[in-house]
Amino acid sequence: MSGPPARTSSGQPSRRNLSASDQATIQQAWSTLLRRADAIADSITLALIEQEPAYLASSAPDIAAEIRRSTREHVRQGLLTMSRPREVSDTTREVWRRTGRERARQGIPMELVLKAYTLGSRTLWEELMIEREQHRLVIDERLLLLAGQQLWRALDGQYETLVQAYRRESARMQQRDIANVLAILDGLRSGRGGDPAFVLEARATLGLSASQAIACVVGVLDDQGESPLPAPEDALDQIGAVSHWNIRDGHQFALVALTRGSLAGVVEALVPRAAGRVGVAHSPDGLSSFAAAYRLAALTAGTVADGEAGVALATDRLPRVILAADDQCSELLVRHALGSLWTHPEPQRDTLLGTLAHVLASDGSPTNAAKVLFCHRNTVIYRIRQIEELTGRVLSDPQNRLLLTLALVKTGHWARAVDFGHR
């Protein structure tokens, strides 16, 4: 059987010679199909599911029954429109709009929805031809052609109305989804990961499993509010990590769900993108410990020097992170550990602190420290004596070495010594 007839050159059916009698004949032709509307709709449903099994992949409950119900409504409403009023009613348009909204919410691709409408129109046309061939319908070829053109025009109107409704609903859903994700991230950052109900909602919204490995990434915005990580999602996608991002209180942060790889892989993926200071921390207890991971990642980002760009892993910088957590305690530790060396005049103080850092980084060996400092071993030994005198601490004591190391981490001398030694 042939499909719906082609449109006229203007895209609309010609009505110049269409009398009231002709129009009544066309309407009567369509009305003959009303008695079999449900049967026609069911055949369309079966054909649609057979030709497009992707319809059944929708997460909507009992989607097959919903398609059958909707198709019956469309066929009956369409036949009523074609057989009675000349103009499409608001009720009919609302059916199309509602279908557009429902299919968007069901996650059915728009092209499948439009295919369903095309299949339905073609089936109605074929049913009209069958009625005529079986002599149950008296209509000449000219009026049959005009009936098909009217059907085609109705399909155009259905397309336009449905597509607009589908797109509006899709946009609303996307905005709603983004808003939900941002609200979930805010809640996790503020400590709501201890609420079991909230955790269930968060997992559903973010698509996480109960055993999902989670990390937190925090970057510090610069003075102009520029992001420290442009387009980080693309970089993380390449290592199979799904990320959800937000910006709050001068920080760009994310929940990163790891499907494979490690935290080191996250750092490696983000390093080429870094335009500012960024910290990464593991959330060992999943969503329930995300707030703690956020604080740790933020502190880690703070250990990257101002004006520099870099991505640091919290476990690689624990001494500095711990000291950064409480400035008052850190200042007390420095003064307590270094004693009068901290108030020693410059530049001698800086020289002695640098020497101390190299000696401690060399496991207390003056010889190894001298090699890195490019000076004589006796010079290093002399400086050690000065340090011990000014600090009141013997370097052979393990507790003194720990306190002095932490103090040097806080002042920055430890990082300079280690980095210099590595070079």
Task: Describe the 3D structure.
This protein is 61% helix and 8% strand. It has helices at residues 20-31, 37-51, 63-83, 90-106, 110-133, 141-189, 196-206, 232-237, 263-270, 290-302, 318-324, 327-338, 348-361, 366-373, 377-391, 398-411, 413-422, and strands at 213-220, 241-248, 251-258, 277-283, 310-313. It has a 5-stranded mixed beta sheet, with helices on both faces. Helix 10 (290-302) links the parallel strand 4 (277-283) and strand 5. The termini are far apart.
Compile the SSE list and pairings.
Blueprint (H helix, E strand, L loop, with lengths): L19 H12 L5 H15 L11 H21 L6 H17 L3 H24 L7 H49 L6 H11 L6 E8 L11 H6 L3 E8 L2 E8 L4 H8 L6 E7 L6 H13 L7 E4 L4 H7 L2 H12 L9 H14 L4 H8 L3 H15 L6 H14 L1 H10 L1
Parallel strand pairs: 4-5
Antiparallel strand pairs: 1-3, 1-4, 2-3
Helix pairs in contact: 1-3, 1-6, 2-3, 2-5, 3-4, 4-6, 5-6, 6-7, 10-11, 12-16, 13-14, 13-15, 13-16, 13-17, 14-15
List keywords for this structure.
single chain; alpha+beta; 423 residues; five-stranded mixed sheet
Please give the count of helices: 17
- Mean pLDDT equals 86
Q: How much helix is in the residues?
A: 55-70%
Class from secondary-structure proportions: alpha+beta
CA-CA gap between termini: 81 Å
For the sheet with most strands, the description reads: 5 strands, mixed
Total E-strand runs:
5
